[in-house]
């Protein structure tokens, strides 16, 4: 159990590079059973600034941060190509690790992370926000219960408009550096890839189109991957970094019904909802109308990100499972790398499971 004797989980931060850590900090400020003690950042100016804003001690030396006996676990929110090294260093220090997506840029780095978690017997979880979203949890429950029968097609969009923003599409932003983050499909479609794996299990194959279509500042700006799964289901993953607005986020089509999720990603959450809007609905065979579930349609996207820390603390304190294991994180990277390969080579790529 990664908790101090006073039943308060004490947290450290390895890098403020990924902005989601700021949302996690805001949530944890409201927790009675967790606190952020100290942070390190490879960019000392950024680290000192963020620590100053949040009343957190800045530790200029990473080893010193990890030697502190008042830190039980660390968020690793550094650039993606640094994840494996930072997880290994934290694991060697006996700290539990909460790792921002994507897990890594290579399967070799994923395997190194898995090995470190096992060797040093630490608690570990990926920080996948879709698994912490009540609407997604309800969809998983419905699928597991067979509410729409045998599934034929599932479509999930995960989209942002970041590459249309000069503040994001700027020189020096690690998110659009192929060395540090590979591409936007790796960076952002990893959310939806994990969602598909969570819903349907291991994919069997993928075909894909990933490219720069309307911009040229990142390695890629839009992509579609079509996965096949163990029962022949088709999963359509739509990812865009140049989208301005949308509505239906998820569509699930089975032989006994249909599930539709609205307003479940950033581009569908930024505009006012129409009167009577619903976040999640289901049509069942023989019904005369849609059945809506009691989820608010006006949930801002930031709320989904801020929801991540609570289940992580529950896990660290021994009351819940991890959001996603290291092995889960590897599957997601295998899916994304497979999609890139399929797009690059113009062929179907098969997964070995």
From TrEMBL:
Gene Ontology MF term list: nucleotide binding
InterPro entries cross-referenced by the UniProt entry: Gfo/Idh/MocA-like_OxRdtase_N, Gfo/Idh/MocA_oxidoreduct, GFO_IDH_MocA-like_dom, NAD(P)-bd_dom_sf
Location of the Gfo/Idh/MocA-like oxidoreductase N-terminal domain: 16-125
SUPFAM superfamilies attached to this UniProt entry: Glyceraldehyde-3-phosphate dehydrogenase-like, C-terminal domain, NAD(P)-binding Rossmann-fold domains
Transmembrane segments: none
Any Pfam family: GFO_IDH_MocA
Sequence ranges assigned to domain GFO/IDH/MocA-like oxidoreductase in this UniProt record: 137-260
Protein name: Oxidoreductase
Organism listed in the record: Reticulibacter mediterranei
């Amino acid at each position: 159990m990664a908790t101090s004797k006073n039943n308060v989980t004490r947290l450290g931060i390895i890098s403020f590079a990924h902005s989601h850590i700021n949302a996690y900090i805001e949530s944890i400020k409201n927790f009675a059973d967790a606190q952020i003690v100290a942070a390190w950042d490879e960019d000392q100016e950024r680290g000192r600034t963020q620590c100053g804003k949040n009343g957190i001690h800045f530790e200029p030396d990473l080893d010193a941060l990890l030697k502190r006996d008042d830190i039980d676990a660390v968020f690793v929110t550094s650039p993606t190509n640094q994840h494996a090294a930072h997880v290994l260093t934290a694991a060697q220090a006996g700290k539990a690790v909460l790792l921002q997506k994507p897990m890594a840029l290579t399967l070799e780095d994923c395997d190194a992370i898995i090995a470190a978690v096992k060797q040093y017997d630490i608690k570990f979880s990926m920080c996948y926000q879709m698994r912490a979203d009540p609407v997604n949890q309800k969809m998983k429950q419905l699928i597991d219960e067979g509410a729409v029968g045998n599934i034929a097609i599932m479509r999930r969009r995960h989209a942002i408009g970041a590459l249309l923003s000069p503040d994001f599409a700027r020189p020096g932003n690690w998110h659009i550096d192929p060395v540090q983050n590979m591409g936007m499909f790796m960076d952002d479609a990893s959310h939806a890839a994990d969602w598909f794996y969570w819903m349907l299990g291991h994919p069997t194959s993928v075909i894909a189109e990933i490219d720069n279509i309307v911009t040229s500042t990142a390695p890629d700006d839009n992509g579609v991957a079509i996965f096949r799964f163990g029962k022949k289901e088709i999963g359509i993953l739509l990812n865009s970094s140049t989208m301005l607005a949308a509505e239906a986020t998820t569509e699930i089509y089975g032989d006994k019904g249909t599930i539709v999720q609205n307003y479940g990603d950033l581009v569908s959450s930024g505009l006012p909802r129409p009167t009577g809007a619903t976040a999640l609905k289901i049509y069942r065979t023989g019904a005369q109308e849609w059945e809506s579930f009691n989820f608010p349609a006006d949930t801002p996207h930031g709320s989904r990100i801020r929801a991540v820390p609570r289940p992580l603390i529950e896990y660290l304190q021994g009351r819940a499972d991890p959001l996603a294991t290291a092995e889960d994180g590897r599957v997601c990277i295998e899916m994304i790398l497979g999609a890139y390969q399929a797009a690059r080579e113009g062929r179907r790529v098969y997964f070995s499971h």
